[in-house]
Amino acid sequence: MSVFSRKGKKRAQPAVEQGSPGFPIELWIDILREAQYDDLVPSYGWLKKYALVCRAWRPHAQQLLFQRVALNRGASHCKAFLRAIASIQDKKHADMLTGSIQTLSMSLDHQEIYADIIEMCTNLKELRMCLYHASFRPNVLARLARVAQSIKMLHVRAYTYSVLFQTLPLFPAVEILDIDCSPAEDALPVLSFPAPAWRLRELRYTNFRRGTHVVVDWALSGAAAGSCETLEALQVQCPSFSPTSLPELGATHVRSLFVSRVTEEDDLSPLCQLQEVWMTHPRYPPPAFSPLPPSIRHITLDALEGVDYDEILADLHEFYERTGGNLASLTYHRQCIDREDPLDDIRALYEFCEEHDVEFRLVQPPYGSYPGERIPLSMQISVPRVTPLSSRRESKMEVEALLQTWYKKRSAARRFVTKAKRALNTATMIHPAALAKP
Predict the structure, then answer these.
(1) 216-250: string of b/e by CB count within 10 Å (b at 16+)?
(2) Predicted model pTM
(3) What is the rounded distance in angstroms from the CA atom of residue 55 to the CA atom of residue 313?
(4) Less CB within 10 Å around the terminal CB: N or C of the chain?
């Protein structure tokens, strides 16, 4: 109903009684701040709608809109952003918006305009950089170094090792560090120079080339040896990394471990505070649970294919008995696409959890996703780690219904087509680890 009468006069609004319950604006903003995330990932479409509110709410909603800024289209994108900020006539309002930026994502090269953007963000907490050039100019490095002292969370995706190790020493105050060297094609240099004296609480490293795990050793040794006492979460995607190296480095306080697999040759018994382990490629060889310490309460596995389920369950049962039933949850990431798949692996793990009163979580990740993908950086390190796939987690009733109704035998022609597709996919899909350079 319109608030104006037919004669154009505004209708009288009912007076709000004194002492009537009303939410303060700060509470509404907190509600909107939580609601803007769709399964831990910010929804920018929703954020834009938040800014289209009444005039009194507009400044608060715009602060939410500017909390996460993504400038991933190079210098032209940054110039457009600078022009938009400069066009705001109210200088105080412009400063409020740039001061609201807490997470900045950029694809950058050696130009100084990127330093202009970073210097503008006075309250920046998380910086996400995609470095597709070979090196920075000295004056740009000097400007970045002045701002880097306040950055606590850093994600770096580098296409060359030279610019990576030119950038990392600028950030000695980083506590949450995510390094992605998977696109790098140049040779890994000899890491004879010391790492910054940071005290990392979480370290993520991704590189599918063998022999590049030495970056993890470099980040936790020398001047950075203090990180071995503060490190709580470690996520490594590298085929040559062995979790046995953690006790050798002195990183025995890790609570969450994210590795390709744990084998019989590994020894994790010194990690007495380890509560969670996630095996992203638990095949060839199959996963081993005997090396895990008794403190483990949460195990996450990715799809088990072509392995002996009986052997795995026997090892898992032995681990459960050895730890006195300390296991609380078992999470299994696995796609369910083929209706002819009998789901023997899901059935075996589900029955084990039912027998031993362990929570079973089945997550069906989106097709083509990688383990650990899109897990946001956070200063709050929780165990088990929260993942952005929670909306794809099946409930207990859904798992039971899936196991009862999934398998349906098809016609001979349909089975032939399905097997042909499966053979074609097997022949063409190669895991990045298989392409690793020696």
Answers:
(1) bebbbbeebbebbeebbbbbbbbbbbbbeebbebe
(2) 0.83
(3) 61
(4) N
